[in-house]
Amino acid sequence: MVKDILKRYSKNPILTADDIPYKCKYVYNAGAIKYNGKYVLLLRTDIYSPDKEVRKPAQICLGLATSKDGYNFQVEKEPVMIPNEEEGKYIYDPRITQIDDTYYVLYANSTEYHEIRLGIASTRDFKDFERISLSRPDLRNGALFPEKINGYYVRLDRPFLHPRMSAGSPFPLDIWISYSPDLIFWGKSKPLFRAANCPWGQTKVGPGAPPVKTKKGWLEIFHGVGISEKGKTYRLGCMLLDLKNPSKIIGVAKEPILEPVEEYEKEGYVPNVVFTCGAIPEDNGELKIYYGGADACVCIATANIDDLISLCLE
Ligand code: BMA
Questions:
Q1: Substitution candidate for ligand 1 out of 259, 275, 277 with most atoms within 8 A of CB
Q2: DSSP string of 110-128?
Q3: N or C, which end of the chain is more exposed by having fewer CB within 10 Å?
């Protein structure tokens, strides 16, 4: 049973393809951060060619939306980040982390060779993005902590144990933690949370939003994938990690905090999906969780941070 701790915004979805000024079929899985007093979303926008026979997007790039209140967003006329030559056609699922006055974007890149790589770029103005590194395959769902810990940049990530493995594979996919002195070279990697230990996400689990610092530990909103006779279901859960040693889990909420219930979560490009890439903590203790609904729209739900922590400690 999903506990009633997350409140969906009554006017969800907050963005659909109709809100995108350029040609786009689906908008979802947005990274989120506050920048210059405004809410900023980096949007996954899937662009299809007009040829109806083509079932795969012609390009996936990142758009930008800004808002004064976190609910009503204006979208820039053109995408702000498009794949470069090395990346090919698809960059997606961006997670934004601020460290000092720099904003880092960790994003997935699918290449024409069917590899999935994790890209890291930085920006100071959300106009120019400088590429820092692109991982070897197969890795995605990178979520960078908002400060160095014991001298290292730290990220949660989700390796594929075997290239091209996905939901339905007999091998579950787990959340790992990795460290880097410079955001280029990553190591000291360790499994952090096994899908096998997530009763509602036994096929795969992956980092969602970049971890949020709280007095009790790092709060991480993650996704888990379960399979039933109805097919795959993506849900969200939360866990608390030790502040000084984030490879140590303090607690994981037993139940998911959000699962597909509303039509915009159950029907879209991929049915039965809620997937987050960004959450913004507010001074009043609220967490705004931005999430994709059914791989087709952008939604928001809010929760009290202390309530989420309590769930992790139950
Ligand atoms: C994952 C990623 C996400 C997507 C999710 C649900 O594997 O591809 O971008 O939202 O599947 O389809």
A1: 275
A2: E-TTS-EEEEEEEESSSS-
A3: N
